[in-house]
């Protein structure tokens, strides 16, 4: 549910787990894990909408056709839809919950609910699989972002301040998502064990190889581990660059041997920076639009950071796709980062990213991390019912 919009005449989108991923979530094929998952048992009942639309006169035939088309489209989407950083003409929130009446994605139509599944309340450990060739400077940027999530001595607005919104989500016992997120073990797959082109299911096979490796296998942590498969800029993953910059789900015991929450995010630097690294790159079909300067000197990696943040936030709040999400269908949930597609600051919403920060060197960002600056999308705050972030001006 990612769509293209304009920001002061400049297009943006509002990306995964997928964008919206904001992200317009992508359509998924019949081989998608969601359609074959033997372990997930989603809720079978959900509260129904009670707004006045239910009492409206019968819609005309054309409207019925449009509704049926949209319904079939949503059914084909993966539950942890892909994410891309700039929104389409109508963002995901608008599509599912009508047009927002306030800034920062606020809407009385958003019905984010808890569906009784687990969230990550134990200290979270992020394990990384570097798939393909990864230069050390690129790895450092990503490591320092992950380490910044729990860093408390960083100047504001900070990445840890952003994570405080994610921490608001609780499980059945009232326990909050953990404040602590640490970088765990790493595995290099430089030789591309499963080739330069991956499907959604072969992504799980890469994870299987990493946790079952003969030397230095990744630890198996089903309760508090997050597994990130990060692909290099010359690796193509199914649906990548076609509204998908990343996605999250959980591994199938039939493939990996365990149920492990994981996410895939690709480096779009060579393949499609205008799609997945906006606003640090712009689409070729938009002449005259200048990209923003990336805070760490690498548009592809800086573009990945917000997608990584998006996926980690949703893995923490919806690891088995049966916890926190909005929408009436668990097959196509809208999660806490999806609801804030393309919003990076105060005033964001609709076609505007919000007010971001510009440093003396011209770089654009909205929060500080350990020794670095980052641009990270906001997430939905279910307490106040709108998107929030650490760089808010009000």
TrEMBL record:
- Which Pfam families does the record match to this protein? Phi_1
Q: Where is this region: Disordered?
A: 27-54
Query: What lineage does UniProt assign to this protein's organism?
Result: Eukaryota, Viridiplantae, Streptophyta, Embryophyta, Tracheophyta
- Say if the entry is tagged with keyword Signal: yes
Where is this chain's protein located in or outside the cell? Answer: Secreted, Extracellular space, Apoplast
Q: What is this protein called?
A: EXORDIUM like 3
Q: Does the keyword Acetylation apply?
A: no
Q: Which family does it belong to?
A: Belongs to the EXORDIUM family.
């Amino acid at each position: 549910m990612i769509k293209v919009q304009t920001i002061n005449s400049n297009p943006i989108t509002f990306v995964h787990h997928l964008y919206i991923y904001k992200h317009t979530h992508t359509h998924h094929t019949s081989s998608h894990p969601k359609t074959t998952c033997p372990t997930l048992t989603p809720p079978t009942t959900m509260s129904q909408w009670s707004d006045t639309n239910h009492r409206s006169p019968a819609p005309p035939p054309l409207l019925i056709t449009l509704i049926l088309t949209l319904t079939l489209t949503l059914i084909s989407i993966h539950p942890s839809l892909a994410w891309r950083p700039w929104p389409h003409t109508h963002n995901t929130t608008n599509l599912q919950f009508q047009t927002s009446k306030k800034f920062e994605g606020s809407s009385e139509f958003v019905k984010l609910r808890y569906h009784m599944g687990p969230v990550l309340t134990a200290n979270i450990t992020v394990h990384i699989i570097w798939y393909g060739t990864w230069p050390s400077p690129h790895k450092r940027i990503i490591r320092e972002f992950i380490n910044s999530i729990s860093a408390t001595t960083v100047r504001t607005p900070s990445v840890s301040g952003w994570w405080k919104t994610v921490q608001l989500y609780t499980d059945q016992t009232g326990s909050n998502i953990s404040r602590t997120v640490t970088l765990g073990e790493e595995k290099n797959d430089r030789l591309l064990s499963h080739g330069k082109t991956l499907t959604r299911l072969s992504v799980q096979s890469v994870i299987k190889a990493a946790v079952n490796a003969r030397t230095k296998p990744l630890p198996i942590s089903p309760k508090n581990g997050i597994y990130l498969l990060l692909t290099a800029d010359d690796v193509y993953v199914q649906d990548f660059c076609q509204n998908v910059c990343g996605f999250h789900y959980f591994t199938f015991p039939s493939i990996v041997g365990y149920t492990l929450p994981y996410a895939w995010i690709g480096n779009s630097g060579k393949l499609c920076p205008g799609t997945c690294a906006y606003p640090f790159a712009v689409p070729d079909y938009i002449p005259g639009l200048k990209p923003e300067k990336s805070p760490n000197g690498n548009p592809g990696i800086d573009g990945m950071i917000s997608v990584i943040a998006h996926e980690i936030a949703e893995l923490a709040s919806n690891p088995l796709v049966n916890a926190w999400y909005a929408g009436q269908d668990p097959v196509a949930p809208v999660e806490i980062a999806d609801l804030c597609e393309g919003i990076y600051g105060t005033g964001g919403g609709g076609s505007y990213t919000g007010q971001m920060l510009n440093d003396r060197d011209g770089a654009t960002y909205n929060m500080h991390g350990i020794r670095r600056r980052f641009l990270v999308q906001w997430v939905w705050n279910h307490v106040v019912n709108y998107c929030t972030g650490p760089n808010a001006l009000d």
